[in-house]
Amino acid sequence: MSSTKLKDSNHEGLKHFDWSKVETVLLDLDGTLLDLHFDNFFWREMLPLHYAKLNKTSLESAKETLYAQIESVSGTISYYCLNYWEEKLGLDIVQLKRNFCEKIALRPNVLQFLNYLRKIDKRVILATNAHRESVELKMDVTDIFSKFDRIYSSHDFGFPKENQAFWETLQTVEPFNRHKTLFIDDNESVLKAADRFGIQFLMGILKPDSQKSNITLDGYDQISNFGDLMGETF
After folding, report:
1. Which helix (H) or strand (E) holds 124?
2. How far apart are CA 35 and CA 29, in angstroms?
3. In this structure, which CATH number among 3.40.190.10, 3.40.50.410, 3.40.50.1000, 1.10.287.370 belongs to the domain 11-36+105-229?
4. How far apart (Å, rounded) are the C-alpha atoms in residues 89 and 79?
5. What is the pLDDT of residue 232?
6. Contact assessment for residue 113 and residue 230, using Cβ atoms and an 8 Å cutoff
């Protein structure tokens, strides 16, 4: 893999990362900037509950059906598409998400980190697989829209971040020097895709869901919170 590791064996070393080597910072949304607990709760608990009620079936049966359907399109644009799931399930996914939006939350030190990137004059790009309507809802709740120079959803391009076509299209509409770019994501498959594309600096998230255990992203260093990447004097 072509990526550069940002630390040795502890998070403390990250505070001394040479930011002069980076011009552009690409950031994922769910599980990276935002606590993945909201999405896990919604898709694995609340959606099956409403699906069971709609189809007059047991919660266990609804979960089995939904989990199988979700797994069958994993890694594709349909997996992340709210329109696809609304049509397939007969439920208003966007409205259901709004009903539980109080669970949408920033991960530790996200706002401070976004302000830090402004202070050190980096171009900050949101690159997410989340559907545009989901992005808008989460931006409204967290009020971080203004922190980004540009916001791109994979649905704008028709390819998820796991696909090289996403990165090729992003490079076309948002020219960046891949050798001077840092990309942070909580999905190993996405990091590997970015790695293959040649993005120099790659970083994962240690605990995307605050209510679950730490995860392991094979071959990539991970941060516990964004304070790990900010300079000592900030």
Report:
1. strand 123-128
2. 9
3. 3.40.50.1000
4. 13
5. 54
6. yes
Query: What are the sequence ranges of the domains in the chain?
Result: 11-36+105-229, 37-102
Give residue 29's identity as a one-letter amino acid code: L
pLDDT for residue 1: 45
Distance, in Å, from the CA atom of 83 to the CA atom of 66, rounded to the nearest integer, reads 16
Annotate 7-68 with DSSP letters as a single string. -SSSGGGGGG--GGG-SEEEE-SBTTTB-THHHHHIIIIIHHHHHHHHHT--HHHHHHHHHH
Q: Classify residue 188 by burial, with Cβ atoms within 10 Å: 0-12, 13-18, 19+.
A: middle
List the end-to-end C-alpha distance of the chain, in Å, as a whole number.
32
pLDDT tens for 50-107 read: 999 999 999 999 999 999 999 999 999 999 999 999 999 999 999 999 999 999 999 9
Q: Which two tokens stand for residue 82?
A: 């709210």
CB 225 within 8 Å of CB 210 = no
Is residue 180 over pLDDT 60?
Answer: yes
Give the integer Cα–Cα distance in Å for 90 and 121: 45
C-alpha closest to that of 227 among 54, 17, 51: 17
**Is the pTM above the cut of 0.90?**
yes
Number of C-alpha atoms within 13 angstroms, CB side, residue 204?
A: 20
**CA distance linking residue 208 with residue 189, whole number of Å:** 15
